[in-house]
Amino acid sequence: xxxxxxxxxxxxxxxxxxxxxxxxxxxxxxxxxxxxxxxxxxxxxxxxxxxxxxxxxxxxxxxxxxxxxxxxxxxxxxxxxxxxxxxxxxxxxxxxxxxxxxxxxxxxxxxxxxxxxxxxxxxxxxxxxxxxxxxxxxxxxxxxxxxxxxxxxxxxxxxxxxxxxxxxxxxxxxxxxxxxxxxxxxxxxxxxxxxxxxxxxxxxxxxxxxxxxxxxxxxxxxxxxxxxxxxxxxxxxxxxxxxxxxxxxxxxxxxxxxxxxxxxxxxxxxxxxxxxxxxxxxxxxxxxxxxxxxxxxxxxxxxxxxxxxxxxxxxxxxxxxxxxxxxxxxxxxxxxxxxxxxxxxxxxxxxxxxxxxxxxxxxxxx
Amino acid sequence: xxxxxxxxxxxxxxxxxxxxxxxxxxxxxxxxxxxxxxxxxxxxxxxxxxxxxxxxxxxxxxxxxxxxxxxxxxxxxxxxxxxxxxxxxxxxxxxxxxxxxxxxxxxxxxxxxxxxxxxxxxxxxxxxxxxxxxxxxxxxxxxxxxxxxxxxxxxxxxxxxxxxxxxxxxxxxxxxxxxxxxxxxxxxxxxxxxxxxxxxxxxxxxxxxxxxxxxxxxxxxxxxxxxxxxxxxxxxxxxxxxxxxxxxxxxxxxxxxxxxxxxxxxxxxxxxxxxxxxxxxxxxxxxxxxxxxxxxxxxxxxxxxxxxxxxxxxxxxxxxxxxxxxxxxxxxxxxxxxxxxxxxxxxxxxxxxxxxxxxxxxxxxxxxxxxxxxxxxxxxxxxxxxxxxxxxxxxxxxxxxxxxxxxxxxxxxxxxxxxxxxxxxxxxxxxxxxxxxxxxxxxxxxxxxxxxxxxxxxxxxxxxxxxxxxxxxxxxxxxxxxxxxxxxxxxxxxxxxxxxxxxxxxxx
Lengths: 366, 508
Description:
The complex is a heterodimer of chains A (366) and B (508). With 366 residues, chain A is an all-alpha fold. Chain A has helices at residues 3-6, 14-22, 27-37, 39-58, 116-152, 154-168, 172-183, 188-196, 201-214, 218-225, 230-238, 243-267, 278-285, 294-321, 331-340. Chain B is an all-alpha fold. Chain B is globular and about 85 Å long.
């Protein structure tokens, strides 16, 4: 018989069960476990991995041409007005029998016969590269600025935070347009780095906040007594303690980065032909909406899928890193549990009234 | 207070100065004024290039050019856009108005809907409604603004125009809309199974009958808010406002707000005659709005009682809504004429620009025209803003509702409405109030995309055109306006914060 079972029922709260669940696990293990159990985030992760693999293997990268039969810029004879040959299986309401029917041009062709699947995949590739580059460069800048400001305080902090304020003054899309005009073009990596140079501000502020409190902790004093240099203390001892904030915010930053990049490319101040990105594809094809709607649907769908998956992953990570996070069943399940076991009623959240009391938790009078 | 404001304004000006300097350098580095000449095969190419260097003063170092620009700017000379040859101040004038219309409408709608939905979602945390709203806001957050805008333009506009050409909904469609409304309301209000069923039935019946009414009376082709409809909507508004503002048990507040509805009904015809007699303008509308508020407050105080302030507040809010119904009615009355105007040609939902050329007509026709032009761009902006506000208000309401003082308020027996509206909602507005001014700036950035898609001649379009065509003066004018607004927004946010939260002092 374990200790918890011997306690009177008053003390066997949800929390105790939760503590037993994580007993003997390191912080990293707890986070990983929580993240792996977050259903939405796991589905999103699988979808994102699928998209990444599809985008990079289908049309290849660099000198490699990939497994898809067409290349993005190759002009083919237009078949059947360029309509998509993709058919949904019968169980999805389509008429392709038991499984998807791909055909020659599953996403269709544009007006001069280029394969839309190959073009969308190339665009996805570019957008993904930019997203990742923005994520990396913004994180590096954000961490360095935030860590220096939070660790050194005083004048360094003042100067760095004024610089941050300066960057925040303008809407990202406005500076992004100017930078895109400057650095956009054919190279996604350079464009991504430039975008990273304006999107680091949130992360820098958060890291600074974390560092301001971390530097007062005992382990920092211990490291200093042991003779560690400032750089070592900052990046070896303090940074791992701020990793949760950093990972979560990098993820969210990347989801806004893909929207920013596609918007800029759409506006004509980002990636320019002959390179292509999802935003540029939409910009090229919006006029054809009435006659060839598929040209417009696919790139938009890819953006939504990528942004949504990254957002869900970020949400899962936030839940996983949040020490206050508890898994909370739905209102109905709680009500059911409460009516079965009256003793649980005191554990409920004060914001939710148990439905059996007839409480109207909406805005109406009661 | 003043020393705080003074310090903030000075710091803001310094930021503005540095920001314009950096942006000037960046903008001039990004521009290539010779883009059109590079491809040129004109025999006098070298001469053209040297002419342009002369025109744009490109032999002067960029830093000196910045200070020249700054000097002119300080004297109120914004320069000339060299491609179009127009002075920047002229171009900017119309552009600012167009952008302000767009951003104002979108901001208000996004705030009202976003905050309302976010708060209901927070109050029903972990319910199906909450999960639905979280998912929808995630989805809206992940939608590219330009894609939604193009979709609305290419698909929504055509669909809506086709519908208006032959405004008949099938009964199946009306039933489906009613069912959806019923499900949504019953999820939002919640309660036990019986209450859910009742909510569902009421919402379904109401939605169904509204659509049936619109269909059967041919409302779509002759839209108006006629007296019976005004009475119905007005009473519903009065009930809703009173419920939120003071609770239906406060009979005096209810009576005061119903009185304003009666006043609105009585004024229905006189106002139409009045508008026929006078020359309408927006300034006059603003004056009438102020009069309306005054009348509402007057009615509230006339009902006296122990707490006349509450009645006055309730009546004023109802009065404003009833008056705006009268205004909407006035605009709707010109719909048939507008629809049949040759400039419209039976396609009343436009996708381009901010007004129909050669339209003619009076103030109301022009108002309707600019509303129709605002419809889709505003919708595109609202969808994006809505997600952000829902998230903010939900998380801030959750934070507040878990505070101890909420439990205290409940435990001393206050009605749930008072707990939510007075103790919860008000406090949840504090973090929200600091976000809104800053978010308006983001919306201004978003307006670049919307204006581009819908070809509205606003500031964003001006900025983008000038940036691509290497005109630095309009770009700098835009950047100064945006940066100045952002700085003002930050100061306003601080002041609002200090005003709402007594723990924060600005005169420190």
